[in-house]
Write a structure and sequence with these properties.
Blueprint: H1 10-35, H2 46-64, E1 68-71, E2 74-76, H3 81-88, H4 90-108, H5 116-141, H6 146-175, H7 182-214, E3 232-233, E4 260-261, H8 272-287, H9 299-307, H10 334-371
Antiparallel strand pairs: 1-2, 3-4
């Protein structure tokens, strides 16, 4: 659903850019809390969520290369807003998808540069907000279990894709550059993206289910499933104390109040195995499986061609990029050219995404350190 330059006029594109910039700014602040482990049991969440966030962005980039057929002559691909929001939080999720869109627009000429604000507003903001809202609502009413998280993930992803189609239709109604009845655009966009939403839901549910099966503590949307802290009483609780010297034998012995013993700290588990497995999956998808992706136009491209929305499409500013159209130029073998481009895209997205999230985490840690009350040093003893 990458909107190219020329679909939407300049005023609406600029307004969408302002909305996207505001959303990214708000998400930067919110992601600092999510990356610091807000709501996950304190500071221990910082070393869990931040490494996963960059990987989520790279994984979304990789899976977006896997177009799947949804109808005759039409394909679809993952948008990723629901997946990112559930795995690493809604604010961090907006940033994940925004990083993916930036890499795709700059390196691969996928999605217009003047339309970057439109794509972020549509594919990053709309999908994440709708998906996470639906997800939280379902989690509250469904039984408290891992299966409920997977079911809620499926429904949230399913609804997020047609929501993005509705958002595009609204933007096109405000600033479309061709004279096409908006009712036809709405019907065609929503219809095909409901089908694409099914594929998005399957991918999202399978991914969330796989992560929650091995490391539920790393899934932001499953943080409420954490087992509540249980206090254990000391084995000496209830034992009558020895009588005090001034206590007579006839006086009742006071029953001591049980003193809870501190619960043992849970051993820390490394995120490296999951991180390496996720990176391997991303490289496999982008570097190998992408060769077998459907070559049919995606939902927006198909609707644009059938309804005439693309009559004023402008050439991409980076159309001459060495990686344009997800292929390395000057490499004759299409499988090698596409696979190498995919690997480069995964590496670039991982590097940029991880860099952003590490900086945010460190700034949050520095801000917390500055806000901590200073401990006054003890006054020196007076010399006699």
């Amino acid at each position: 659903m990458h909107v190219p330059d020329g679909f939407i006029n300049a005023p609406v594109s600029a307004a969408a850019g302002v909305v996207a910039a505001a959303a990214v700014a708000v998400s930067l602040r919110g992601a600092r809390r999510e990356l610091a482990g807000a709501g996950t049991g304190g500071g221990t969440g910082a070393d869990r969520t931040a490494p996963l966030a960059g990987l989520v962005a790279a994984f979304i980039f990789a899976v977006q290369m896997l177009n799947f057929p949804v109808a005759a002559g039409t394909s679809g691909h993952l948008l990723g807003g629901a997946l990112a929001a559930i795995l690493v939080g809604p604010y961090t999720g907006v940033l994940c998808v925004s990083v993916v869109l930036l890499m795709q627009g700059v390196l691969f000429a996928d999605g217009g540069l003047t339309a970057l604000g439109i794509n972020i507003s549509d594919m990053a903001l709309t999908t994440t907000v709708v998906a996470y809202g639906v997800f939280r609502l379902l989690v509250k009413v469904l039984p408290r279990s891992r299966r409920s998280i997977t079911v809620a993930s499926f429904a949230a992803a399913l609804l997020s894709v047609p929501a993005a189609a509705v958002c595009f239709t609204a933007l096109y109604a405000l600033g479309g550059t061709t004279d096409v009845p908006i009712g036809k655009v709405f019907t065609a966009m929503v219809g095909v993206h409901v089908l694409i939403g099914i594929g998005e839901a399957v991918i999202t549910a399978l991914t969330v289910g796989a992560v929650i099966a091995v490391r539920p503590d790393l899934v932001y949307g499953a943080r409420d499933l954490a087992r509540p802290l249980q206090l254990r009483t000391s084995p000496l609780a209830g034992t009558a104390p020895a009588a005090a010297p001034d206590q007579t034998a006839d006086e009742p012995t006071p029953i001591p109040t049980p003193i809870p013993a501190p619960a043992p700290a849970a051993p820390r588990r490394s995120t490296r195995p999951l991180w390496l497995a996720g990176l391997a999956a991303a490289l496999l998808c982008a570097g190998g499986l992408s060769y077998y992706a459907s070559s049919s136009p995606d939902g927006l491209e198909k609707v644009a061609h059938d309804k005439g929305l693309d009559s004023k499409t402008e050439a991409h500013a980076t159309a001459d990029s060495p990686l344009a159209d997800y292929s390395v130029k000057d490499i004759a073998n299409p499988r090698l050219a596409g696979g190498l481009a995919g690997v480069i895209g995964v590496a670039a997205t991982l590097a940029v995404g991880t860099g952003v999230f590490v900086v945010l985490r460190r700034r949050k840690a520095a801000a917390d350190a500055d806000a901590a009350p200073a401990v006054d040093a003890p006054a020196p003893a007076e010399q006699g």
